[in-house]
Every structure is written in C-alpha cells, then in structure tokens.
Amino acid sequence: MKHPLFYITTTLALVSTCAWADGDQSHAIAQDGAILSKADQSKISAFDILGAHAHRKGNVVTFHMTTSGVAGAEVPAATGTLGRASVLSYVWPTSLDPSAVGFEGGTGILALAATSHPDFDDTPLYDENNDGDPSNDGVIWHSHWVVLTPTEACGPGALAVRDIPDGETPKLPATWPGLPIFLDSPGFSPLFDGPEITINAAFSSNVTLEDVAYDGVTAALRVNANIHSPLLCVVDVFDVASGDLSLPGKLK
To answer: To the nearest whole number, what is the mean pLDDT of the chain?
Structure first.
C-alpha cells in the first residue's frame, strides 16, 4: 500500500488549482535540514514563510517557522456561529504515520498545527486565557495534531481534516477533543517571538524520529456550514515553504 503522501503529491502534480500548491518553487535547503523560502511582498506578511525548521532532542521535537512579518499577529474575524467559522493556521506536515501520536494508522498526512479561531474552542482540557473557563479561548493560538486527506467535497484537489463518519470508531489519541474529525489537542503551547513561531512537541519514546521529513504551510480553513461531512476544509493557502508540499525538510 502506498503512503498517503503519494496520493497528496500526485494530486498536486495533476491539479494545478490544488489549494496546497501555490506554484512558488523558490526555496532552498540549509545544512541543518531547514527549508528556506524567499520573501514575497504580495503575501500577508504574518503568513509569508521565510523558513521552516524542525530539530529534536531525545523524544522532543521543536518545530519552528519564520515569517517576513510578525507571526501570530493576524487572527480570524468572528462570525458568531460554528458553521462557516474561520480558522487561521501555521502547519508542519510530516512524513510520520498518524499512529505516531495515537491516531488510526495509514489514514493520511500527520501534521502539527497552531491555530486561532474565535467562534469555537476545541481544547476542552486547557484554559489558554487563564480566566477559569476552558471553553472560551479558541482565538488564542494553540496546537493540534491533525490528519489531512484529499477531500473532493471541499473542492477540486482540496484537503480537509479527516472526518469520522457516523458509526465509525477509529483509534484516536487520549486528548482527542470530541469533534468528529482526526484532530488532537495535545496542549503544546505555541511560542511567538517577532517573526518566529515555535512549538515543542513530545513523542512517546517508542516512536522512531530519525530522518522524519517535513514542510511548512500557512493556511486558512473553514468549518462546513452543515458542521460535518466534511467538517473542516482547507480553503486558502497563503504560503508553502517548499512551494510544492514535497516535504524536503529533514529532522536533525
């Protein structure tokens, strides 16, 4: 069976309008495995990627992304409803199988994401704004593991966070927030410092992290008006570090 990345990259090659392919091939790989990308003044500076980098110490991987503007400075406008709610994100797609963090294996592309969305809260175990209410702080940047899959219902060549159809009970991480999608809320706090966003992600000691491949993406997602089938689609891509989602970065 081919890895799900095969189907993603094949889609990118065949569908020129795919949401994840912005056509910018101006990137390079640094000696430490980081992906370097040229600045583009036509893009929103907070989401214009200059570099995506990941390195590890033991079973903790530090994911970095550097932008030409102030990372995290932009957040979505509230719509007042869950249906059609907007999500902004910094995303690191990886070559890791989803089972590495507790999802059903072989189900798509495992990606770490930092997201902001004022219309709902999907981290029920955490109180990011420290006001005593863990259900009202979705606008504050927070982390997720997500599994991404090609989803024609989101548009030709588009991706979505993998849905969980009614009646199915796939394997999910212990910190799954209860939404019917392959999404985990592990509680890793994104750290912002001017143009840079950093997330430290811990893995089980039995997960092999040697030579993991990765990329960097900034994107907007939207909740389906019908709330499900699919629930969360990628609707716009601001930048892709590699230009083509080829995951050229190598974990060192």
So the answer is: 90
